[in-house]
Amino acid sequence: MTEYHIPYLSEDEKLFLNTTATYSQARRTSSIEQTRLLVFLLKTATLHATCGSDIAM
């Protein structure tokens, strides 16, 4: 059986990893939300264009 050494992280290392993970998650969430908003706006614009509605934006 192979033994593995699992190092303990210092408080600074834990903080760094946690901060990095949080930042990455925020970036992914932001990107997803921006994509959803863009899709919504495109669908809305297409719907209004095909219905002949004039909406001031």
Q: Features of this protein?
A:
57 residues
Summary, kept brief:
By secondary structure, the protein is mainly α.
| Overall pLDDT metric | 81
Order of helices and strands: H
**Structure summary, number of beta strands:** 0
Number of helices: 1
Main β-sheet description? none
Gyration radius over CA: 23 Å
In the predicted model, the low-confidence regions spanning at least 5 consecutive residues are none
Beginning-to-end CA distance, first to last residue: 67 Å
Shape: elongated
Helix content: over 70%
Structural class: mainly alpha
Strand content: under 5%
Topology record:
Blueprint lengths: L10 H41 L6
Question: What does this molecule look like?
Answer:
This protein is an all-alpha fold and 57 residues long. Helix content is 72%, strand content 0%. It contains 1 helix and no strands. It has one helix at 11-51. The radius of gyration is 23 Å and the shape is elongated. The chain starts with 10 loop residues before the first helix and ends in a 6-residue tail after the last helix. The mean pLDDT is 81.
